[in-house]
Amino acid sequence: MQADDAARQLTQKGHIEAEKMGLWLAKNYAPDALLVSPYIRAQQTAKGVAKNNTFKFSETCKDIIPEGKPQIAADYIETLIAAHPACNTWLVVAHMPIVSYLVDQLCVGHMPIFNTGAVAVINYNEQTQRSEYKNINAPDTV
């Protein structure tokens, strides 16, 4: 990992992909809650996604950085879901490898490799605290 990984910026292509996925999310899922890494490129991605989405809840979370602990992140996400019942669809903007490990924490046996800008769709049942992995969508496939 680079020493300046936290400060790395999105490329022009990354900005375009963020806006494209934001539009796709708005049309298909309308996320109303956002949890985003403090790293610059994640913040820039969230800003691009937000051009086409309105969030009732938004928070920067240091637990979803590349070297973060997926169990802590999963527990925190589940806590936020319980604390914000008005939010039905959550978007987590983070990085590899934590996003793959996070999906596996929530949906055991599913550890997708994310292309840049990709979105994994997971159905989470708050009553059972179980998740179902649906699919992964990338900017070049939506």
Topology:
Blueprint: H1 12-28, E1 33-36, H2 40-50, E2 57-60, H3 70-83, E3 90-93, H4 98-106, E4 119-125, E5 130-137
Helix pairs in contact: 1-2, 3-4
Brief rundown of the structure:
Helices cover 36% and strands 19% of the residues. With 142 residues, it is of the alpha/beta class. Strand 4 and strand 5 (130-137) form a beta hairpin.
Order of helices and strands: HEHEHEHEE
Fold-level CATH name: Rossmann fold
Query: Which whole number gives the mean pLDDT?
Result: 95
Number of helices: 4
Beta fraction: 15-25%
Radius of gyration using CA atoms only: 14 Å
Helix/sheet category: alpha/beta
At CATH level 2, the architecture is 3-Layer(aba) Sandwich
> pLDDT under 50 segments (min length 5)?
none
Number of extended strands: 5
CATH class label: Alpha Beta
Largest sheet: 3 strands, parallel
How much helix, percentage-wise, in residues? 25-40%
Query: Could you say how many structural domains there are in total?
Result: 1
**Strand order in the sheet with the most strands:** 2-1-3
Keywords: Hydrolase
GO cellular component, one term: cytoplasm
Enzyme class: hydrolase
Protein name: Phosphohistidine phosphatase
